[in-house]
Amino acid sequence: ASAAQQPSHSGRRGATDLEKHLELLVVENERLKQELKDAEALREAVSRWESQARPRQKRLAELEQQVLEKASRVETLSRQLEESKRHAEEMQRQLEESKCQQGEVEQQLSVRLRDCEEELARQATRPHQVKYVTEIVEVESSESQQAVAEAQAKSVALQEQLSLQRQLLRELETQLHDSQRTSTQLRAQILVYEGEMERAQGQLEAEMQNLEEEKNRVIEEAFIRAESEMKAVHENLAGVRMNLLTLQPALRTLTCDYNCLKRQVQDFPFMLEKAITEAKQEICQVIGEVSSANQELLRKYKREMNLRKKCHNELVRIKGNIRVFCRVRPVCRGEHDSAENMVSFDPDDDALLYLSNKVKLMTFELDKVFHPQATQEEVFQEVQSLVTSCIDGFNVCIFAYGQTGSGKTYTMEGVAKDPGINQRALRLLFSEVTEKAPDWDFKITVSMVEIYNETLRNLLGDIQGEKLDIKMNPDGSGQLYVPGLTEFTVQSPEDINRVFELGHMNRATACTNLNEHSSRSHALLIITVAGVNSSTGHRTQGKLNLVDLAGSERIAKSGAEGSRLREAQCINKSLSALGDVINALRSRHSHVPFRNSRLTYLLSDSLSGDSKTLMMVQVSPLVSNMSESVCSLKFAQRVRTIELGNATRRQWENSSTSSSPTHDSVEVTYTHTHTHPGESEGRRETHCLAKKI
Ligand code: ADP
Ligand code: MG
Fold first, then answer.
1. Cα–Cα distance, 76 to 72 (Å, whole number)
2. Which residues form a coiled coil (predicted)?
């Protein structure tokens, strides 16, 4: 074996190395992917930065545009300034010229003036000449006179010219003043323009400087970022290169391992065969061990099951096999004769019920009292353990007892929206059985019968109201069976509904008035639960009998005749028989009169042995029903203390003495003490039945 395991060891190591390399490679691959992802993220960041820088560039271009505009404006201004300067120079030049002209004119004028003055002086010096001339005039007077006149005229003309020249001078002076003013104005304007220009230039320079700074900063930042990113990328690249270098030897070892594995795979079939043979041997051995352990477990399980059943029986024995509940129905709409406090409950003890008429207060103690507000669900909660015990193989009977109108049918069947015990029990059985499904295989069958006038009728059969007989099983087991009784196997809640509908329909069509008829007959729903344990083969069979009894009310002697009288007798007989059977069971009589009525006979196997019985006594809250309520409760209270014995083996009576006893014979046989001579067959005896028990 060790020689065979050798190659498998080395193969294992090879595989481990390979796996390690593979893991390394996978990790490496992951890292490379991550780096690639990082580089992509970097590229994204750069593009993001670019997209961020774009508006800045735009702004820069705008600013440059503005600068250009301003520069052109400055140029225009300087051009204007130049023009103004030129204009001013021109004006100055004109001024100079005018001054010059004025000087010349002044000079001319002064020359002229001087000439004139000189002339005048000369003229003045001439009088002597004039005298002389006069004398001469006397000689040549006309000539001199003419000369004087000319001279005078000349002087006047010169005077005029002088004043004209003076006026011109004045005008030129004002002109000069004007041009001087204009020139100062222009100079001031030039100064203003220059100031403005300087300011604009300063602004422009500051703005340009800001922009330049911003541009530099942004460029620097981008550069730094790009540089660091580039550095990271370079590093990554170097890492990747390094990895690639390290991966190459790994790849080489992988290839080597692969070749090694390939060789091992070739050897594998032989190894496998060997291993399989070994494993088979081991498995066989283990299976042997497990099956013996299983056998042991099974033995223990069976022992535990028996113990459980014993414990359960013991528990039931301690608690009593018969439980008696009481349910008080609510006052229905339209009922007016209910009295306050006629029925009352104990707030601390739900087993007590008080009934009071005007005279006295009666106390009844039961196992549980349901007040009128109790819901169907609450009632079912109390009976569900009883229902499920039939899965464990117990036989169970649940009776609804009480006068007509006290709520028996409501409790057992319920209404469509709020079903009673029947439907809830079947549904619960279904869910319980489904829960046990892998280990247990259960079969649930349902029969429905009614007992009317001591006749058993099949409610699920094809023939309406088909009469049935109860017979002893010929196999000698002492078991009873009903030949021809229809049994439906139900597999789903839908099946349940169908069964109930069919039973209801058959019952309704077989009579003229269902309400009346149902109050005078017993309706039985018989559910059989049979199971097989798939691992142990252990079998169980339990039966759940849900009985809606006929009304327990007494009928006045005068009011009963003919068929009504017969009905009353039959109901009386069967309810008395039920009481008698319970009485005999409780007293552990060796003889239990099951055969005294169809009802008790049919239910004999569900009332005897370790069977369980629940009596739900229904009570009406109406004052008019007071005496019947008292009767029902007395019956209930007495039944409650009875136990079904499981110690004594009962003998099934089959003598003719009680095969079809009358009510009287019941009394004679089992009570010996009570006879009611005053109460003939016309009067139903349920109240007496209670006393007897
Ligand atoms: P029984 O079958 O005893 O003759 P029923 O079950 O027919 O009585 O009940 C008589 C009336 O009282 C029916 O209308 C029924 O709906 C009503 N009833 C009985 N018990 C209750 C209850 N607990 N809640 C509401 N109505 C009820
Ligand atoms: Mg009814």
1. 6
2. 15-108, 155-221
User: Residue 36: how many CB atoms within 10 A of its CB?
Assistant: 12
What tokens does 71 get? 């520069």
Probe ligand 1: pick from 326, 410, 413, 620, max atoms within 8 Å of CB?
A: 410
**pLDDT, tens digit, 9 for 90 and up, residues 132-191:** 444 444 455 677 788 888 888 888 988 898 889 889 889 988 988 998 898 889 889 889
Contacts of 366 (CB under 8 A, 6+ apart): 324, 325, 326, 351, 352, 353, 617, 633, 636, 637, 640
Longest Cα–Cα distance of the chain, Å, equals 228
Query: From the CB of 519, is ligand 1 less than 6 Å away?
Result: yes
CA nearest neighbour of 451 among 277, 577, 630: 577
Strands 352-356 and 343-345: antiparallel
pTM: 0.54
**Dihedral (CA of 123, 129, 131, 133) sign:** negative
Reported as a single tens digit per residue, the pLDDT across 434-470 is 988 888 899 999 999 999 999 999 999 888 778 899 9
Residues facing residue 540 across a β-bridge: 531
Rounded CA separation 533/528 (Å) = 16
Burial 335-354 (b: 16+ CB within 10 A, else e): eeebeeebbeeeeeeeebbe
Confirm or deny that 405 is annotated as ligand binding: yes
- Quote the CA–CA distance of 426 and 529 in Å, as a whole number: 10
332 CB within 6 A, ligand 1 = yes
User: How many residues would you count in the chain?
Assistant: 693
Q: Judge whether 478 is annotated as a binding position.
A: no
Classify 662 as helix, strand or coil. Answer: coil
Ligand 1 pocket member 618 (CB < 6 A): yes
Is any atom of ligand 1 closer than 6 Å to the C-beta of 410? yes
Q: Which amino acid is at 169?
A: L
Neighbours of 252 (CB within 10 A): 11
